[in-house]
C-alpha cells in the first residue's frame, strides 16, 4: 500500500498542475470580457450570456450595441466572433433599441428584436448602471410585448 501511494502522488501532482493552468485561462477570459460596449446615437442592442463551454453556472450577462447594424443578428454575430476568439460561448437573451446621448448623459432602452425576441430592459438597465453611473437610464417595460 505504501508503494502505491508513493507512485500515485508523483503521477498525480503534475497532472493537477496542467489541469489547473488549463482551467485558469478560460476563467480569466470570462472575467476580463467587457460587460458593455455601447455606441452613441440610436442603435440596435442585444443582451447575451457569455460563458465557458459546459459551465453555464458561471455565465456573465453582456450588452452590445451597434448603430450601423442592419439586423440584431449582426450585433450578435459580432459578439459571437469576439467571444470565440477568447474560447467562450454565447447565448442570446433578446434585443431591442437604444438611444445613447453622451452629452446629456442619457440612455433609453425600448422595443424588441424580431429574431431574438424582446430583451429584459429592466435587467439591461441594472447591468448598465454600474458602468454608466452618471447617466440617466430609462427602460421601457411595456408597449412592445409580443
Automatic annotation (TrEMBL):
Keywords: Differentiation, Sexual differentiation. JanA and janB regulate somatic sex differentiation. This is Sex-regulated protein janus-B. It comes from Drosophila ananassae. GO terms for cellular component: cytosol. Belongs to the janus family. The keyword Phosphoprotein does not apply. PANTHER family: BCDNA.GH02250-RELATED, JANUS-A/JANUS-B. GO terms for biological process: cell differentiation; sex differentiation. The active site is at residue 72. The gene is Dana\GF22681. Substrate binds at residue 44. GO terms for molecular function: protein histidine phosphatase activity.
Amino acid at each position: 500500500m505504501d508503494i502505491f501511494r508513493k507512485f500515485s502522488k508523483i503521477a498525480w501532482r503534475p497532472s493537477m498542475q496542467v489541469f489547473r493552468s488549463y482551467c485558469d485561462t478560460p476563467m480569466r477570459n470570462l472575467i476580463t470580457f467587457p460587460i458593455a460596449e455601447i455606441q452613441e446615437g440610436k442603435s440596435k442592442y442585444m443582451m447575451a450570456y457569455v460563458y465557458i463551454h459546459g459551465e453555464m453556472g458561471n455565465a456573465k450577462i453582456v450588452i452590445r450595441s451597434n448603430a450601423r447594424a442592419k439586423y440584431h443578428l449582426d450585433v450578435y454575430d459580432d459578439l459571437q466572433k469576439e467571444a470565440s476568439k477568447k474560447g467562450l460561448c454565447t447565448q442570446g437573451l433578446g434585443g431591442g433599441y437604444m438611444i445613447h446621448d453622451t452629452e446629456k448623459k442619457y440612455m433609453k432602452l425600448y422595443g424588441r428584436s424580431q429574431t431574438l425576441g424582446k430583451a429584459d430592459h429592466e435587467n439591461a438597465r441594472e447591468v448598465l448602471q454600474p458602468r454608466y453611473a452618471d447617466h440617466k437610464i430609462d427602460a421601457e417595460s411595456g408597449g412592445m410585448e409580443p
